[in-house]
Amino acid sequence: MARAFVLIDVATGMAETVCDSVREVDGVAEAYVITGDFDVVVELEGERPHDLLSTVTSAVRPLEDVGTTRTYVCLD
Q: pTM score, two decimals?
């Protein structure tokens, strides 16, 4: 099982809406509104690292009000 964390910058005032939307994406284990340089953190799970990156590209980034993302794949 592969796991990754994705940090998402969203449009002003849209953190809760984006967080709720991303929770509906297949492969998302958890999602939280956070403080700091990014607005939402998402934990992804998949069979392979490629599955995780595919989820970000095809299902997370296209969501309305999603801006910059940073993906960190867990090595262990």
A: 0.94
